[in-house]
Amino acid sequence: MILYATDWCGYCKAARAFFQANGIRYSERDIEKSSVALAEHAKLGGNGVPLIVVGAEVVNGYNEGALRHLLGRWLRG
Questions:
Q1: Which residues of 40-52 are buried (b: 16+ CB within 10 A; e: fewer)?
Q2: How does DSSP classify residue 5?
Q3: Structure pTM?
């Protein structure tokens, strides 16, 4: 799973907290610090952050319901 994010984004912070609370491992790519990450983000149709890639699925923005649906079997409790 990949999280495209920035340091200052509140919804990115919420996504990080959700992943941490549920023991979900992910790779983070800062689109302001990496031109490669920015290009990948654009190629995925990103129009903001966070943009979360779970397998072949792309979640634009922080959407806990969509994440719970996609990650259900890996979530704690």
A1: bbeeeebeebbbb
A2: E
A3: 0.94
